[in-house]
Amino acid sequence: MKVIHILNSVWQFYRDGFRNMTWGRTLWLVIIIKLFIIFVVLRLFFFHPALSGMSDKEKQNKVGENLIEKIK
Amino acid sequence: MLDTSLIDWSRAQFALTACYHWLFVPLTLGLAVIMGTMETLYVIKKDDFWKRAARFWMKLFGINFAIGVATGIILEFEFGTNWSNYSWFVGDIFGAPLAIEGILAFFMEATFIAVMFFGWNKVSKSFHLTSTWLTGIGATLSAWWILVANAWMQHPVGMAFNPVTVRNEMTDFSAVAFSAAPAMKFLHTVSSGWLTGCVFVIGVSCWFLLKRREQPMAKASIKVAAIIGLFSALFVMFTGDQSGLQMAKNQPMKLAAAEGLMDGGKDIPFSLVPGVKIPGMLSILATHDINGYVPGINDLINGYTDPITGEKHLSADQKMVKGRLALNAFRDFKKYEKTDQTKKDSAQLVLNKNMKYFGYGYIKDKHELVSESNFNLIYWAFRVMVGVGILLVLVMVLMLWYGRKDKLENNRWLLYTALGSIPLVWIAGQCGWILTEVGRQPWAIQDLLPLSAAVSGVESSSVVITFFLFLLLFTALLVAELTILLKAIRKGPEPIVESK
Fold it and tell me: For B359, phi and psi rounded to 5 degrees?
């Protein structure tokens, strides 16, 4: 019961905090747009990690090959 | 054939992202100290005057924090896309600090920043004050772990290379995190952030005085910021000096290039600007001894014997031979890894013996180690950084002097100087990063991995596209920040609420 009371207090704290924001609303809009651009647009369409989808074994082999290839 | 434009565009993209990120971070670090100090004064003195002041600077902190947060994440994306060989090669060394940074520091900031903004009049004064300080400490801890990672790039220690996994594995966490190089880098960088925050507060407060608005708050803010700022500026200089010692010891080519020193010696002068030299000063900066030996670029390329310690330093050609032995041994290790244990073990012995020079195996011409095109950039970056630092010490002293006599408003030249110092402190910060990162070239990891080996095999055209996308995105963010920040400053602090 005490835990539920604490969780409820925390929830109300955040809820009231967000509801009572004034200038903070503009900032949150900027944050949300920025995070969308970074994590959705940029990450999905423009950033494809070269080693993604590989197991650790495949990564170590790939990097090993790359490092050896660059010796030539 | 390696596409050199790929390296150049990948570098440019990373530099652009890092420079933009570094527009926001120092103000976060600096304003955290200011708002923590002012709220502490509020709690101790029980005076709403300080509460109002703290809340004003806290608002500006919040604006900067909101715009700047997550701009550093793009750097991590770039590691994976443009620098995949590097990001795998560094292994645990980056993984652990960045994980700690994310889990501990970011969540600490994120938790307590909510209490800081939402908790006025809802939580106790002491809890709110603690939250304010913990928000700042969280941001500072974030900086610690990032700087540990960067310091390791400049001076790789505390690890052993595992040819099976092709990764560096941490063997000594305290060497990686707490040795002199990361410690000085952290202290120097963070104190430069404090200085940035103080210069910002003083500059904005001087604007209020010029407009004859909020004079009591402005003067009080100037006093607090000038005291912290003077301490910060002096500390930046002290830690900068210590960082210089580290640079002379671990990256002598960077120091030689920063001075354009071709031939070394003892009692080497330092040039303030071309043609104006301070006798013996470079030896003092590098060794804290006017008779200290400072190697020049030619000495580092051709090899030399330190006349004071007698220590022999290999020539670039000798390092390249050892580097090639290491690379060939690594190739043999991978070739015989599963087929011939004896040859594999023999290869590992050679690799271990020459691992220190691994990166030199990729250098085809010793002149790649000296990027003359960077000399001017590094030379002037260092001088601008130090020159602005000295100027800011003077500004702090003048602020305290005239503030003590309550004569700030009568000296509009000083108010305009302080206002003009705002962009200067940011320029100095950027110059510091240019010195440390451009001076590191051609190394991604000093002596272990040059850029040519670190870079991924992506198409340079994709890097060009994302470069310009970032330019657009970050410029938009910067315009948003300046617009919102200037609006908040023009509006000023909220009215005093009598609550004694």
Answer: -65, -30
